[in-house]
Amino acid sequence: MLLEVKNLTTKFKSKKGTTTAVNQVSFHVNEGEILAIVGESGSGKSVTSLSIMGLTPGEVSGEIIFKGEDLKQKSDKEMQKIRGDKISMIFQEPMTSLNPVHRIKDQLMETILTHMDMNKEEALKRAITMLDLVGIPSPEKRINDYPHQMSGGMRQRVMIAMALSCRPELLIADEPTTALDVTIQAQIMELLYRLRQKFNMAVMLITHDLGVVAESADRVIVMYCGRIVEEAPVIELFETPKHPYTRGLLDSIPKIDEDKDRLFMIDGMVPNPLHMPKGCTFSDRCDKCMDICRQMMPALVTDGNRSVRCFLYHNEVEVSE
Fold this sequence. Notes:
With 321 residues, the chain is α/β, with parallel strands linked by helices. It contains eleven helices and 13 strands. The protein has a nine-stranded mixed sheet with strand order 6-7-8-3-9-10-12-11-13, sandwiched between helices. The chain has a four-stranded antiparallel sheet with strand order 2-1-4-5. A hairpin with a 2-residue loop joins strand 9 and strand 10. Helix 5 packs across helix 7 and helix 7 packs parallel to helix 8. The longest helix has 18 residues. It is globular. It starts with a strand and ends with a strand.
């Protein structure tokens, strides 16, 4: 087991009150696997990844065990050494993640020089090699470009090259294909999959795109309102989804063999994080809602390699929390 997250909770305080963006989340990532975390916007996916990296301004509690060491106990200086080296992250928008006033060369070399024992000439060679590895043509020329001189897909490839330049053991990819057209999305995911195999690197894929999940992930975690509501191997999740929210997400995927005037849509809206409903946070939108769902939050229950947070399954399986 490469990464184990235990009871991760992240809270943000404001004048209006305290928002719990991530609530008692526990999961693990094995070496070399792709774990996908899915859910609507506001479900806590990105905050979970930022909390692991120590990059959120919120109040974070719980344990984040990476290779036997709790990252929560590390100082800022120790975390700076880990970030970009052992654990790397690709952020949602490459144009805002790359510094527009510095050349690609300078930004790639900074990461390499920070974490690896190389001089500037060696770092430049490695930077060019990484650009070539991620499929950027004429890397020895393009490395002198500024970010605005590259397309969105090229900038995303630069972000991947930067993230992988020190051969991390865990890559956190936060919506790596957002704002890219379908063809480029497929190329980026194929690139990540190929590099995962080449370096035996674990990937934590944060996304709302279930098509990407189906093609690339080994296991899937479904989040809603800051909690895990279902976890399963990818094939089992798509073939037999258990939680009503998971079923709603899968029903929302357009199917080529169905002739419908309108696509399926989950009723209602994600609740205000400052005014969560009593009981199950999905109860107001659920077509299977029972009286108990409006009174109590169901625990996460486990059956073999699957977990689900729903009262429909409490009599069948073992409660895990």
